[in-house]
Amino acid sequence: MRVLKKVKEKLKKIIPSRLTSLRSLKSRKKKAPVKKTRRAVAHKEIPSFQETIAVNTKFSHPETARSWNAMPQDLPSCYDQDKIVLQVRDPRWLHTYWEIRNNTLEELKGRLGEEFYRAKKILRVYDVTNIIFNGSNANSFFDIQYNDFATSWYIDTAGPGRSWCVDLGLMLTDGRFITILRSNVVQTPLDCPSWITDEEWMIPDDIFARLYGMGFGLGRSSPVGGAWQERVKQGLFSSGISSSPVKKEAKPRSFWLKVDCELIVYGATEPDAKVTVQGQPVNLRPDGTFTLRYYLPDSRQVIPVRAVSGDKIEERVITPIVTRETR
Amino acid sequence: MYEAITETYVPLISVFEGLVADGIDFRMTMTLSPTLISMLSDPLLQERYLRHINKLVELSQKEMERTKWQESFRRLAEMYFNKFSHARDMFQRYACNLVGAFKKFQDLGKLEIITCGATHGFFPLMDVCRDSVRAQVRVAADHYESVFGRRPRGIWLPECGFYPGHDEILRESQIKFFFTDSHGLLHGTPRPKYGVFAPVYCKGTGVAAFGRDLESSKQVWSSIEGYPGDYNYREFYRDIGFDLEFDYIKPYIHPDGVRINTGMKYYRITGTGNHKEPYVPEWARDKAAEHAGNFMFNRQKQAGYLNELMDKAPIIVSPYDAELFGHWWYEGPMWLDFLFRKVACDQDELRMITPSEYLLENPRNQVITPSLSSWGYKGYSEMWLQGSNDWIYRHLHAASDRMSELARAFPDAQGLLRRALNQALRELLLAQSSDWAFILGTGTHTSYAVRRTKDHLLRFNRIYDEVKSSSINESWLSDIEYKDNLFPNINYQAHR
């Protein structure tokens, strides 16, 4: 443990400056304009979808694309595979990363010629809820145009409780979409109670509403749906390592000074003598010296130091008197 | 780790010992993660802990001397002297291995010890490589069995992270139950009839899921209204490691002179400002008793109310980080002690129960599919999947795929090859620890987390290459077997 901490501290000292310079480089690189297009297959549109994308892209993870390029050079930059992976971040957001073999790209270039360079790089996000997806039967889909440097992306689905699949491909100038990679299928979780009830275990809505609110520790009358939002607002999450339940007082950023006093009483005598300080026996070092250290509150301290020779014949007493007064 | 032993594990064991000695019946469910068990059982760590606790005893003796003109502090120094001496005695009494102590209370039927992911990988972000989830569970369950002599009945999913379908992997390892955060059950499908106040069985596997009750959590956890913030309780952030004169405290802090916590803290929380008054143990003790009474009273009210709504016995699941008790909340173990005693002696509406016991008594439960969930920030995966840490997953997943490939290619490796494959799995498991992603996510000490992630992955990749090209370098392998020596009896076939 100690060693780890030591390493941590050392690294901390060395790294920061390097990191910042890297970061600025990266963010510059990332600024390629991001445009998003979408087409709905059916009219199952999610309201105000385009705004959500635009807004969220700005805020969410400005460093997304930088991380991969800039991270530890000694891990391989790719694993020689054609692969796109889709993961769920929360009821609304997905994360995807991908890798395309050079050969695969070369083949495409060969096949498409000039078209390859004119095509837009697209992530096509399919809603495949309750279907077995065959490439053309999605409930709906939307497209995201990604920039040249990206190898990963966060996708705002705005769709809790639905299944998703992503194709990475090219949108040719004539509007044709060519799939290069297809992801796994994932399902976003619900962000409210399911509307599906089980006949055998049915419960009246009002009672469930009460149990639901109670489950979140929000009393007994929280309406269904509101409780989760309430919980997110209150931040009632505990994640072990990081957060202490014990409140740390915010230190005011004002100038400050702390002063305290300790008193060191030290001396020396014959190594075989017996010494007491304020009546308490003191252990001597082999050379006959001793040191005592006291917290010194505002007070007057009378400190008789008494030494008796080893043969108990002689005695010496020295009594320092110390007064601390703090103004 | 040392702090956890002195401040949490030893005090908890003391509480259990006292309860058993007084004939008080109690129940508690506790996770001992495979890594914690390994650390507690490691002779090198045990030796170092003894050295560490001896230094604390020495420091507290010096402190008793130093504060002798200031009675309110001197008695606290003495309190710590007693505490540290007691910790040292107990540690030695259990032959320096506290796992034995916990096992004792499990065997007495008071404590139910459950397991965790082998290296605390965050399962939802391993879902694309379920073999890795399986390895995390299998290695943990096998390790548990080797220590406790039976299979674990339950698991605390790392960070409470559940992804639908992982119950199947638990079932394969004969694990009967796990826990989700409240929304894991409440947002499950179909709707759970009793909310979080009864367990459910996962559809298709029958593994039981218990949902966390937030009302009782909040009473203890909340930094605003929770018990630990009471002004009479000990202030965590005023440690003599930071407060005392440098030369004096130097032998007891970090060897490089970096000030750290020693565990000796003299103040109570006092109030919202920076001014702190000396800690008064008697006041804190009274508060702990009062808070235990309050907690019990609220559970009684809660249970009474639930009884009206439900036609079966409600269960209230209140999980907390072990280190809350004693480490963060100094009076936590004392509070637990009061609570156990009050529940056993002062009332008959509530009963302490372990999940296994509840399931035995209430075998009929609703079948649903719990929702993806965790108890991390915002309740899902964001803490471990954001701009600062998302780069790790392509490497982790690639390594997982490679591990599966190796495990299938060599169903029964022997000798050097077997050693290499076992080490490959160790490195992969270590790389998967969610701590790295978490640290990267918080933005402090990130270089350490980057280093650890990279080290383990690079070692894994080298083993992979060497195995693939039949050119295993034995001396290098021995070296990393020595460096990353977790799970000596690991079997790489767990990853498939």
How would you explain this protein's 3D organization?
The complex is a heterodimer of chains A (327) and B (496). With 327 residues, chain A is of the alpha+beta class. Chain A is 25% helix and 26% strand. Chain A has seven helices and 16 strands. In chain A, the strands form five sheets. In chain A, strands 3, 4, 6, 7 and 8 form a five-stranded antiparallel beta sheet that branches. In chain A, strand 1 and strand 2 form a beta hairpin. Chain B has helices at 2-21, 34-41, 43-66, 71-93, 99-107, 130-148, 166-172, 182-186, 214-221, 240-243, 246-249, 281-309, 332-345, 355-361, 392-409, 415-432, 434-442, 446-468, 474-483; strands at 28-31, 111-116, 154-156, 177-180, 200-202, 208-211, 367-368. In chain B, 52% of the residues lie in helices and 5% in strands. Chain B has a seven-stranded mixed beta sheet with strand order 1-2-3-4-6-5-7, sandwiched between helices. The mean pLDDT of chain B is 95.
In helices, the fraction of residues of chain A equals 25-40%
Q: So how many helices of chain A?
A: 7
* Average pLDDT reading of chain A: 77
| CA distance, first residue to last residue of chain A | 44 Å
The CATH superfamily of one domain in chain B is: Families 57/38 glycoside transferase, middle domain
Q: How many H/I helical runs of chain B?
A: 19
Q: Quick one: how many beta strands of chain B?
A: 7
